[in-house]
Amino acid sequence: MADPKPLSPRVSAASQLHTEDVAALAAQGFASIINNRPDDEEAGQPSSAEIEAAALAAGLSYLHAPMRGMPDEQTAAAVADRLKSDSDRGVRTLMFCRSGMRSTVAWAIAQRQEGADPDDLRDAAAAAGYDLSRLPL
User: What is the model's pTM?
Assistant: First the structure.
């Protein structure tokens, strides 16, 4: 299983998940999954529908907000809405894509829309192993 890397106390990023990873995430206290990976991006990756079924079976909420490169306005809004909802409910969220980088970018953009300091976001991402130094926040 990909190792979730904390971006904040309640949000972590990870690389590609597989259906068998979902129950372990629930056991670690995650209650929500955001999938930023488009289906069929790479041979052998599980589909969004497969991961969603595993998430729902494990009692986790699920959002598929696929992106290639930077998130478009609709994807950024969907991620921001889910993160806000998860935060309001006090639950932990795992975001994933192929490497975790796109998810980290989507998280940072969503947090910036809420007024977070850009340098704090870059520092949190760097601590998790993601370089956002070139991202205009």
Answer: 0.95
